[in-house]
C-alpha cells in the first residue's frame, strides 16, 4: 500500500516536475552550442554568449561575449532602429540575422553561420515588428496587463506564470522569447507564453480570434 502510493507519487511528481526542469535550463536546449554541433572549450554552455572578463558589456551589457551584428536591418516604418541596435534584440540578431558566424565569440573568428528558417536575415519587415511602441490606448491591444511594468499578462488567455514582455515600452525579440529556455508548456521555440491556440498572440492582441 505504502510502496505503491510512493511509486504513484513519484510518477505524479515526475510528470509535473520533469517538463519544467527540461525547459528552464539553457544547457538542455539548442542554445547550448555543444548540442548544436560545435565544440566549445571545456564544453561550456554560457561562453558563446557571455564571459566573465574582456567582454562587450560596455557596448551592450549582459557581459556579452559574442561578436555583434553591425545592424543595417530593414525594419517597420514606425520602429525605432536605435532601440533594436542598443537593446537585447541585437544580441539575438548577432546569431539570427546570419551576418555573423555562430562560432565567432571570445575574440575568435568563426565560420559557420546559422542556416535555414532560423536565419531571419536582415530584412525584418517580413517578421513580426520589433522596435515598435506597444500602444497605451485604444481597444485592439491588451492594455490592462501592460500596466504591470514591462510585463503583459492577459488574464483570460495567458496561462499562469507566463507573460509577454516589453523593453522600454517596445516590442523586441524578448517580448515573445527567452534566450535561456522557455516557460511555455509545449517547450518549443523559447516562447515566453505557450502559443497553443495562439495564446501568445492574444496576450497582446485582443480582437481577433
Ligand atoms: C545563446 C546565447 C546565450 C547563452 C548560451 C546564454 N545566455 Fe544568458 N543571456 C543571453 C541574452 C540574449 C541575454 C539578454 C536577455 C535580455 O536582456 O532580455 C542574456 C542575459 C543573461 C543574464 C542577465 C539577465 C538575466 O536573465 O538575469 C544572465 C545572468 C545570464 N544571461 C546568464 C547566463 C548563464 C549563466 C548562461 C550559461 C548557463 C547563459 N546565460 C547562457 C543569451 C545567452
Ligand atoms: C550564439 C548564437 C545565438 C544567439 C546569440 C541566439 N541564438 Fe537562437 N539559436 C542559435 C542556434 C545555433 C539555434 C539552433 C539552430 C538550428 O537548430 O539549426 C538557435 C535556435 C533558436 C530558436 C529555435 C528554437 C527551436 O526550438 O527550434 C529560437 C526561437 C531562437 N534561437 C531565438 C533566439 C532569441 C530570441 C535570441 C535572443 C534572446 C537568440 N535566439 C540568440 C544560436 C543563437
Ligand atoms: C510577437 C512575437 C515574436 C517576436 C517579437 C519574435 N518572435 Fe521569434 N517566433 C515567435 C513564434 C510564435 C515562433 C514560433 C513559430 C512557429 O512555431 O512556427 C517564433 C520562431 C522563431 C524562430 C524559429 C524560426 C523557425 O521558423 O524555425 C527564431 C529563430 C526566432 N523566432 C527568432 C526571433 C528573433 C531573433 C526575434 C527578434 C528579431 C524574434 N524571434 C521576435 C514569436 C516572436
Ligand atoms: C508583446 C506584445 C505582442 C505580441 C505577443 C504579439 N504582438 Fe503582434 N504586434 C504588437 C504590436 C505592438 C504591433 C504593432 C506594431 C506597429 O504597427 O507599431 C503588432 C503588430 C502585429 C501585426 C501587424 C503587422 C503589420 O504589418 O503592420 C500582426 C499581423 C501581428 N502583430 C500579429 C501577431 C501574431 C500572429 C502574434 C503571435 C505570434 C503576435 N502578433 C504577438 C504586439 C504584439
Write a concise synopsis of the structure shown.
With 209 residues, the chain is mainly alpha-helical. It is 26% helix and 4% strand. The protein has helices at 2-24, 57-60, 81-86, 89-96, 143-146, 173-176, 199-204; strands at residues 132-133, 151-152, 164-165, 170-171.
Q: Counting H and I runs of at least 4 residues, what is the number of helices?
A: 7
Distance between the termini: 49 Å
Q: What is the radius of gyration computed over CA atoms, rounded to a whole number of angstroms? A: 19 Å
Biggest sheet architecture: 2 strands, antiparallel
Bin the strand percentage. under 5%
The largest beta-sheet arranges its strands as 1-4
Written account of the structure:
The protein is globular. The chain is 26% helix and 4% strand. With 209 residues, it is mainly alpha-helical. The strands form two sheets. The chain has a two-stranded antiparallel sheet. Strands 2-3 form a two-stranded antiparallel ribbon. The chain starts with a helix and ends in a 5-residue tail after the last helix. It binds heme C (HEC) (4 copies).
Topology, element by element:
Blueprint: H1 2-24, H2 57-60, H3 81-86, H4 89-96, E1 132-133, H5 143-146, E2 151-152, E3 164-165, E4 170-171, H6 173-176, H7 199-204
Antiparallel strand pairs: 1-4, 2-3
The structure holds heme C (4 copies).
One heme C (HEC) binds next to helix 6 and helix 7.
Amino acid at each position: 500500500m505504502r510502496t505503491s502510493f510512493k511509486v504513484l507519487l513519484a510518477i505524479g511528481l515526475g510528470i509535473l516536475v520533469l517538463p519544467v526542469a527540461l525547459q528552464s535550463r539553457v544547457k538542455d536546449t539548442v542554445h547550448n552550442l555543444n548540442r548544436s554541433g560545435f565544440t566549445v572549450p571545456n564544453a561550456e554552455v554560457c561562453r558563446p554568449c557571455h564571459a566573465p572578463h574582456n567582454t562587450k558589456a560596455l557596448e551592450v551589457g549582459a557581459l556579452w561575449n559574442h561578436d555583434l551584428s553591425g545592424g543595417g536591418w530593414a525594419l517597420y516604418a514606425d520602429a525605432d532602429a536605435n532601440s533594436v541596435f542598443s537593446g537585447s534584440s541585437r544580441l539575438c540578431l548577432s546569431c539570427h540575422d546570419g551576418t555573423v558566424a555562430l562560432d565567432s565569440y571570445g575574440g575568435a573568428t568563426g565560420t559557420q553561420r546559422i542556416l535555414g528558417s532560423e536565419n531571419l536575415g536582415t530584412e525584418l519587415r517580413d517578421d513580426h515588428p520589433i522596435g515598435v511602441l506597444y500602444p497605451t490606448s485604444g481597444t485592439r491591444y491588451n492594455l490592462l496587463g501592460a500596466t504591470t511594468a514591462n510585463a503583459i499578462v492577459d488574464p483570460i488567455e495567458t496561462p499562469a506564470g507566463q507573460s509577454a514582455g516589453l523593453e522600454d515600452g517596445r516590442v523586441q525579440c524578448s517580448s515573445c522569447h527567452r534566450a535561456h529556455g522557455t516557460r511555455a508548456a509545449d517547450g518549443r521555440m523559447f516562447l515566453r507564453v505557450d502559443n497553443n491556440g495562439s495564446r501568445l498572440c492574444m496576450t497582446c492582441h485582443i480582437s481577433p480570434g
